[in-house]
Amino acid sequence: MKRKTKLLALLIISTVVISCSNNQKEEEDMNTNEKSLSVFPLGDPGSSDWFTGEVHVQGLVNPDQIEGLYSVGQVTFEPGSKTNWHTHPAGQVLLVTEGRGWYQERGKPAQELIKGSVVAIPKDIEHWHGASKETKLVHIAISNVKDNSAVTWLAPVNDEEYDSVDK
């Protein structure tokens, strides 16, 4: 079972890397009014219970498809949009495929995210991620599942917290 999981994760990462490589020859557009270079469809609007601003989520792999081990989805954040603070009971990996944004763990400085950024988030670490004020952000999220849960949602990121990282 571990071998299947590793092979599937490698296949997903390879697909994203190949797609990103193909898109490097095109001029990347940081303006949301231009055509998106996203690999997958935009998806459904994200819940206002979990996100601030305009966010879309495109499910790619449902935990039920692979023995409940993890989920995979593309998340598109329009400028200024972000997640609430949250944790993952078994960790998460973010693969940034387009745009610019931020990842921040509670009590630590924010990390800038750009196309090609990879973030490995340990289990139970309180964090948030989202787009910069001027550009959209698109990432693939691979979330491990534990006890039928992939995420625990917490309070929204307030304006002061967001403004302090996106200057």
UniProtKB/TrEMBL annotation:
Gene3D superfamilies linked to this entry: Jelly Rolls
Highest taxon of the lineage: Bacteria
Domain Cupin type-2 positions: 75-138
InterPro entries: Cupin_2, HNL-like_cupin, RmlC-like_jellyroll, RmlC_Cupin_sf
Keyword set, alphabetical order: Signal
CDD domains hit by this protein: cupin_HNL-like (cd02233)
Signal peptide, first to last residue: 1-19
Database matches in PANTHER family: BLL4564 PROTEIN, RIBD C-TERMINAL DOMAIN CONTAINING PROTEIN
Protein name per its UniProtKB record: Cupin domain protein
